[in-house]
Amino acid sequence: MCGIVGAVAQRxxxxxxxxxxxxxxxxxxxxxxxxxxxxxxxxxxxxxLGKVKELADAVDSNPITGGTGIxxxxxxxxGEPSEANAHPHVSGENIALVHNGIIENHEELRSxxxxxxxxxxxxxxxxxxxxxxxxxxxxxxxxxxxxxxTAAQLEGAYGTVVMDRRDPERLVVARxxxxxxxxxxxxxxxxxxxxxxxxNVTRRFMFLEEGDVAEITRxxxxxxxxxxxxxxxxxxxxxxxxxxxDKGQYRxxxxxxxxxxxxxxxxxxxxxxxxxxxxxxxxxxxxxxILRNVEHVQIVACGTSYNAGMTARYWxxxxxxxxxxxxxxxxxxxxxxxxxxxxxxxxxxxxxxxxDTLAALRxxxxxxxxxxMTICNVAGSSLVRESDLAFMTRAGTEIGxxxxxxxTTQLATMLMFVTALGKxxxxxxxxxxxxxxxxxxxxxxxxxxxxAFDKPIEQLAEDFADKHHALFLGRGExxxxxxxxxxxxxxxxxxxxxxxxxxxxxHGPLALIDAxxxxxxxxxxxxxxxxxxxxxxxxxxxxxxxxxxxxSDAGFEECEGMKIITMPKVDEFIAPIFYTIPMQLLSxxxxxxxxxxxxxxxxxxxxxTVE
Length: 611
Ligand code: M6R
Hints:
It is an enzyme of class 2 (transferase). The chain contains 18 helices and 25 strands.
């Protein structure tokens, strides 16, 4: 989704702004732009369709100087990707503005503003905000007042930053539904939609809350809440690594993040498991009481996080004996659901800013859930702030749009949580708890072993390069792992992929089987293996092309039409996490062969902050 960077400083800020945009590229975008007030207070604006590199080249060849500026990467919602629709948008000669989010009443506002004599240079919803601010400034005493009056007329979600040529050392920002952080410097201040954008200039941040409007100058940051009252927001020291936005030795962020999984998982588990127990208190204050009383769990999430929730459902019921439902957030939020007694709501999210998941949390709070917990990767995100309990996944910054380490750390976090829950409810005895915890301790080393399959999987990927479709199969908790495998393949290689619970094959999808439809099967030894083997036979009998990921105990033999990738044997508890790795590697290598944009696949964004 769109990225925002702003700066008020004594030095020239063009480089800071463009570097900030580069660090936000992972969010997904189609155009970029910057506007800076020079020393004579002239508004200089440069916009480009395409990558930040195009913008950087344009700024390099025609340098713009000045200490106050705003910049933006746009992910098109209203109006095609084009230079005219790229931000910053302007009103008259004085106002420039960037915006992240969607203004739902933009058509109504557009008509009103047209009647008032404004003309529009773009098809965006954003431009109405620029003209509204311009209009309000005709009567307001300050830019702050004009933005507050404008914000009151907007419906939808926004994070917006406004600059006025006549008040050159001030930026005014407003947040409602789209995250914004203020970065504090010495004699200079910054803002961005993600702290990552500013790590090269500051490590001190304030997170704006819903409804906040703030004015930022070189020396001051004044924040006002929804009611216009001055408020103080806590200053946080960022613990993100400076190099989080660099690929290091890797070719892509996705590759780096796949390889970071052993260390990410060590972080996830640190201080949460002892030798043989899960430390319940590490989930948070009051967790023990909540766990004892939980009778049902409702998980709500989107995309990869939904697949993690689907996997965890098997654990909740099989290990902790607690019923569990999992639903896609965009469905949950519009469904007339019945809340079960003593039901715990769990939102799962890497970013903590996914609009549908956040809306589901807010709705659930009115619907009588006993408590709302989030399992999330981003500290200070909206989901973390608005939930009763936050159990962080600690994956570290994930930049590749395709989630990898976010998924496996979500699974490890869930497994710890399920174990704690089962223990509190007296369903998991110390012996079982020890078995699970022992498996968790082995997990990072086992993931290293799975990563060692990189080369053979790279070779296997050749088979997929000319394919247009693929089918992923699994049973039990490996069905969601097949779902995640299929999501990875489709999003980065653009090969159409579907995942099925293997038992469903004969109810329809079997009709698709032919030599052009590779079928990937996740088939470790477990109670369902014999059933799965029958499903595999159904595919073989119809000339299907099979790729079976299994362990040596599973007893598969390679033959015509069936390749076996023999993985090491791992404990049943961690096997879903382990089998995720070959799925990630396969999609990565297929995408490499196809030459797609691995880290920023077309049409996708990292944090989906709009509905
Ligand atoms: O930040 P979230 O986990 O809430 O994001 C939800 C989905 O947009 C996300 O998981 C998406 O499906 C993945 N990045 C795809 O790999």
